[in-house]
């Protein structure tokens, strides 16, 4: 724009015909020179125009002008964010918590094999108390061997599991035991089912826990199976539901020796499936009549 103004200054004789040419004498003015006034006015105009912003809204056509995008105010929190969790989300959270607890329990558990059939859970737990606090001890029958195996869970992973490996080769009964890190956790027992007195602990010593029982097998079949192989049965509880494909049973014998013999029945066919037998952690309590419960 300044160049246009300068060109206009050089060609003022063409743009303003009322003014004289350079060859003609300038018109007389008593006060000032018209040419210098014009140049001063143009110079002021150039200075004024040079201070303007050519990108301003008033100099850009409305069709090409784009207004700056205004930042929207922050959205308010949706009411859905404060809704209670759904049953599906609670189920997923519970599964994650249970998986984490199970993995922690596995790290604190060891697998002990080649256990003599005459060794009780109390004797086995006493062997590992020097390695750390024993939370649970579960002896199971091995269908492929006359010996048994067990899972021992410690309160502390470092003290228990690392120290228990030193018990490898210790003779317990007539056989040296083997100790390895466990790949599974001990299934916890409902505390309300645990023995509450010395009498109930004595009942547990005479009771075995049986799993993988064929659903076609009746309670009379289970009683006859164990009485034929082990001894007299004083109380039996056969349980099952529509979710699991097999059933479980608690068998209480008259003598504790019969319960030890029953552990050797693990792997024997009961119906169409091999039964699994292990010492019971809970006694078989007599059923409470419904009339007394109400």
UniProtKB/TrEMBL annotation:
Family annotation (SUPFAM superfamilies): RNA-binding domain, RBD (SSF54928)
SMART domains the UniProt entry points to: RRM
Pfam families reported in the protein's UniProt record: PAM2, RRM_1
Domain (RRM): residue spans on this chain: 108-184, 206-282
Entry's Gene Ontology molecular function annotations: RNA binding
Presence of keyword RNA-binding: yes
Keywords on record: RNA-binding
InterPro entries attached to this UniProt entry: CID8-like_RRM2 (IPR034825), Nucleotide-bd_a/b_plait_sf (IPR012677), PAM2_motif (IPR009818), RBD_domain_sf (IPR035979), RRM_dom (IPR000504)
Residue stretches spanning the membrane: none
CDD domains membership: RRM2_CID8_like (cd12460)
Name of the protein in its database record: RRM domain-containing protein
Species for this entry: Spirodela intermedia (Intermediate duckweed)
């Amino acid at each position: 724009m300044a160049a246009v103004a300068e060109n206009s200054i050089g060609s003022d004789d063409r743009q303003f015909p009322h003014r004289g040419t350079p060859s003609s004498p300038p018109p007389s003015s008593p006060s000032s020179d018209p040419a210098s006034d014009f140049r001063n006015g143009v110079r002021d105009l150039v200075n004024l125009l040079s201070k303007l912003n050519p990108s301003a809204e008033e100099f850009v056509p409305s069709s090409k002008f784009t207004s700056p995008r205004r930042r929207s105010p922050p959205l308010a929190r949706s009411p859905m964010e404060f809704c209670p969790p759904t049953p599906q989300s609670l189920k997923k959270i519970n599964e994650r918590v249970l998986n984490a607890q199970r993995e922690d329990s596995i790290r604190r558990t060891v697998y002990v094999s080649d256990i003599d059939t005459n060794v009780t859970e109390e004797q086995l737990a006493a062997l590992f108390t020097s390695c750390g606090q024993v939370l649970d001890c579960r002896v199971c029958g091995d269908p492929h061997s006359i010996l048994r195996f067990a899972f021992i869970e410690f309160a502390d992973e470092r003290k228990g599991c690392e120290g228990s490996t030193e018990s490898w080769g210790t003779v317990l009964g007539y056989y040296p035991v083997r100790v390895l890190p466990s790949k599974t956790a001990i299934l916890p027992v409902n505390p309300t089912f645990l023995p509450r007195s010395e009498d109930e602990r004595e009942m547990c010593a005479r009771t075995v826990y049986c799993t993988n029982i064929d659903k076609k097998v009746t309670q009379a079949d289970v009683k006859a199976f164990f009485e034929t192989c082990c001894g007299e049965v004083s109380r039996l509880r056969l349980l099952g539901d529509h979710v699991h494909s097999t059933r479980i049973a608690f068998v209480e014998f008259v003598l504790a020796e019969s319960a030890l013999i029953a552990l050797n029945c693990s792997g024997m066919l009961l119906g169409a499936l091999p039964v699994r037998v292990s010492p019971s952690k809970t006694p078989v309590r007599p059923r409470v009549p419904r009339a007394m419960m109400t």
